[in-house]
Amino acid sequence: MDFAGLAQLLAIGLVAAVAIAAAWTVHRLRRPPRRTSAGAALRSRPGDPGELPDPRPFSAWRLEWEGRSLPVWDIPGDDPRGPVAILTPGWGDSRVGAMARFSALLPVCSRLVAWDPPGLGESDPGPWPMGLAEHRALLALIERVSGPDDRVALLGWSAGAGTSIVAAATDSPVRERLAGVIAEAPYRLAHTPARNVMRSAGMPWLPNGPLAFAWMGWRLGPGPRWRGFDRAAHASRLSCPLLVIHGEADEVCPIDDGRAIAQAGRGELHAVPGAGHNDLWTDERWSGALSERVAAFVRGLHPINRRNPQHAEPVLKDAPGQGAQTQA
After folding, report:
1. DSSP 265
2. What is the rounded CA–CA span in Å between residue 286 and residue 3?
3. Measuring CA to CA, which residue among 119, 88, 156, 132 is closest to residue 228?
4. 152-157 and 111-115 as β-strands: parallel, antiparallel, unpaired?
5. Which entry of 105, 221, 241, 251 is 20 to 30 Å from 296 by CA?
6. Cα Rg, the chain, nearest whole Å
7. Which contiguous run of DSSP H or E holds residue 76?
8. What is the pTM of this model?
9. Strand order in the sheet with 68-76
10. How far is Cα 187 from Cα 197, in angstroms, rounded to an integer?
11. What is the DSSP pairing of strand 152-157 with strand 178-184?
12. What is the pLDDT of residues 306-320, one digit of tens each?
C-alpha cells in the first residue's frame, strides 16, 4: 500500500473540505436572509407602518447611494419638537423589524426614518458589506432627511448598532446634528456574532471561520486582522450621549461587549436580565420597561442648535411629501 500517496490524498481532501467550508461561511455571511414586507404578510404580520394595529401614515422612497438603491420609510412622529430618529437594522433584519421599536419612539420624535442598508431587506441585490461601508450610507441618509437645525437620534440593533456608532463618531458635515445614539445588542469585533451563532448551531468554527474572515478582510479592506473595526474604539470618539441596551442572556453578542462599548463611549448600559439577542421588543416581560427607558433617553436629548427654538420643517430633498403613503 502506498501510504505516502494515501496521506497526500487525505491531505488534499482535508484542504478541499476546509476551503469549501470557508467559502460557504463567506457566502452565508455576505448573503443574509432577506426580511421583506411580502414575507411579513405571508406570516400574517404587519408589512409596513400602514398595517400596524395603530396604522401610521408614511411615505416610501429610495436613497440612491454609490450605485445602490436603498428603500426608506418616512413616518411622522407625535412630537414636533422631538428629534428625527433613524433606525438601522442588523444582519438578516430590515425596516420591517424596525416597527417593533416604533411604540417607544413615535411619542417623543418628530419623525422616524427606517431604512434597509445594503445587502438587507429590499435593497438592491448585492452582498452585505460586513459593517464596513454602511455608515457612509447612513451619513448620506442623515444629510438627506435633516437640516442644520434638526436634531437626529440614531437607533441601531446588532450590526446596525455598530453602524450607528461609527456614523456618529465619523467627522462629517452632519455630525453636529447628532443628538444621541441608542445601540441595541452591539458587538465589538466582526467575527463575534458569526462565531457564536455557528457554535450554538453545532457547526464548526475552526478552521473555516477564521479563514473566511481573513479572506474577507483582505478583500474588503481592513486586512486579515480587521484592524479598525472594534466598535468600542469608535464609541470612544463619540461627542453625543450613548445608551447601550443589552440582554444579559444574549447568546449572539455577549453583554461584556455592550458594557465595554458603553464605557468607551462614556455612556450608559441598560442591562435587561433574562433577555436574549432577538426578544428585547417581542417579550412583554421587558418590552414595556425598555420602551419607557428609550423614550426617556430621547426626551433627555437637548437641542443642538438654539438659533431657531421652533422645530424646523423636516428636510427631504427630492423625495415624496411626508405623511402620505406612496409607492417607491
Report:
1. T
2. 62
3. 132
4. unpaired
5. 251
6. 21
7. strand 68-76
8. 0.90
9. 59-65, 68-76, 111-115, 84-88, 152-157, 178-184, 242-247, 268-272
10. 13
11. parallel
12. 333 333 333 343 333
